[in-house]
Amino acid sequence: MSPTTNVLILGATGKNDCSASVFVSLLSQVTLAEAFYFVLLSDLKVTALVRSADKAQKLKTIIHDANVVEGTPADASLLKELLKDTDVIIDTYSSDDMYQATGKKTEVIHVSGAFMIADDARGMDVPSKVYDDADVEEMANIPEERLHRNVDLEFLKAETEGYITVYLVIPAAVFGDVSTALVDAGIQKSNAAVFTLSIRPVFTFKGVVATIGEGRNRWSIVHIDDLTDLMMIIFDKVLKKEHVPHGKEGYYFAENGEIAARRVVEIAAQTYKTIRGEDAQKIEKRPLTKAELDIFFPGEMARANTRCVGTRGRKLGWAPTRGVEAAEKWVEETSRAIALSQ
User: Fold this and answer.
1) How many CB atoms lie within 10 A of CB 221?
2) What angle do CA 251, 15, 130 make, to 5 degrees?
3) What is the pLDDT of residues 318-341, one digit of tens each?
4) Dist CA 330 CA 237 (whole Å)
5) N or C end of the chain, less CB within 10 A?
């Protein structure tokens, strides 16, 4: 790498839960280089590619150290210019053509998604597979037609062809509130999509435990801060030129336990009833109708088992601290806020 390490973040203010958190974390390291465990951070230059002109301006106002460029990875000429001196790319945008724009080999940390391991449970209690990111053969055999998989395969192909070195981070169902200046400014989004989608019917139907099928499908979970920590650990080790498994051996599931979809909905319904002063023990439970499914859960979102084990990240020293108990508490707090706002 060059004396100044140039980092390009794609999707720094987008829908991906960890994108802006990683961006803020990197910039905080530039500011607090003396106090943090990173090395050579005084020589770290971070650039964010942002689609919205309004968000770009807000970023420059809030974080004076930010080098913000307005545009999208779909703009080949802009991307080619940005990549000229880039050493590390953190991609939370789901771009699959960046490697074609650079003439030098670049380190890429790409955020994928756990729906590539989704089955067809449809909320039912069916035998389900638990994927381990350390099982190279198992990961290689994930079908190409799975969501996100085609993009990941493009990155792997690019590494094989010598364009990049890629590290594929796969977040499980993300929960937790993001607390950054970017959230306060309306730049960063905090969506926890799987969780928030699953509890929406509770408030529409006034406390009914309305589930996909029986709600028996299970999701591996991860707190947003633990996910960000994993991203930063990988980045740190890449920066220090330590050995970090990559390519076909470079999958990193971010997970810390698992929860059943039904449990999430039950917590929301009990919280709703309690806030309303109703009997939380008398709750109607039913599956969503097909028409309701089409409204609340377009596509396969939240209908499947997505179960995984993050062995590789833990081998790098990642130690997530927030698991099922924290997830349940977060669902309760989120449900309480929604119920009180109605």
Assistant:
1) 32
2) 35
3) 999 999 999 999 999 999 999 998
4) 31
5) C
